[in-house]
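Re: beginner question about structure tokens

> Can someone show what the tokenized structure looks like for a real chain? I only ever see the sequence side.

Sure, here's an example I had lying around. Input first:
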Amino acid sequence: MFAREVNESEVMKAALEHVVLVQVDCEKGKGPEIAKTYSVRGYPTFMTVDAEGAVTGGYLGYDGPDSWAAYAMDCAADNRTVAAKKAAYAETPTAALARALAQHASTAYDFKSAVGYFRTARDMDAARAGDYTDSILQFMYYGSFSGDFGLEEIEPEAKSVFFAADTDVADKLDLAYMITGVAKSSGVPERAAPYLREAMAVSADVTDEELLGTREHLAVDAALIVDDDPERAVGLMRANLPEGWQDDHRRLNRFAWWCFENGVNLEEALSLALKGVDLSPDDQARAQILDTAAEICNALGDCSQAVDHMKRAVEMQPDNAGYKDQLVRFETRLADGDCG
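And the corresponding structure tokens:
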């Protein structure tokens, strides 16, 4: 998308009159060394540097021409290094400095700092409060994967936006997706029910393909969490899978793992996982799916089979400490009679 819009968007063309864009493949040639130098953690990441190569700003991801162009123009307007901006912020905080430091912090996956800076920017720049809230929610969600933020911190921010009268369908779907994911990983999926119920209702007539894709994904969780209908959820999940998925070891594993995570359709999930083992092209892939099969066996109350599957996984990947830990876990459960 960026490659197309950088040539088509007038706002991006205007921004590029003030910066020089250099593309680096961080997985080839000198790319890995450059990525290490600038602490690049994910793609795409945009780093702004001065003539001496010192970092003056950073921006994680790409969410459209307007946001990217605003970042580029901010960097052009204030070409001080990040270190200098931090010193200036400590002396006299401003919304512009807070925004710049938040964006740079996100490139290092320091989402706690990014959220803190964006909150300061929101407090100081009420005219752009909505944009700052969007960024706060985005980086809270990213931070939830590493445990930096939990549902209790994220939900108040999300709730104020989700149930606002002027929130559009696309934002409601995105927020419902976010809250559902965090609620499930927090072990309280029922907390997502109001968001799922509302998102499904307001999106009933959408025709946009991207929105339909999000809605179809949420429909699976709605069937499980709102309607308490596992059979329907499994059917919807199957319907979302591409043609030929049952002959693809990766997709078989993903479907089996989804069944395990949600405690549904476990017997078939085990069968499909073992089929994935047979279809896998190498021991690394086979071991990964055997791990899934072991978890499903444990959930079904068959610790003996769980142990057998993990033994095979360890034999295939003897240097994988995670598989060894799993084997000890299932062996302990088998010895204690604590399966399931």
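Each token stands for a local structural state, so reading them left to right follows the chain. The longest helix spans residues 209-226.
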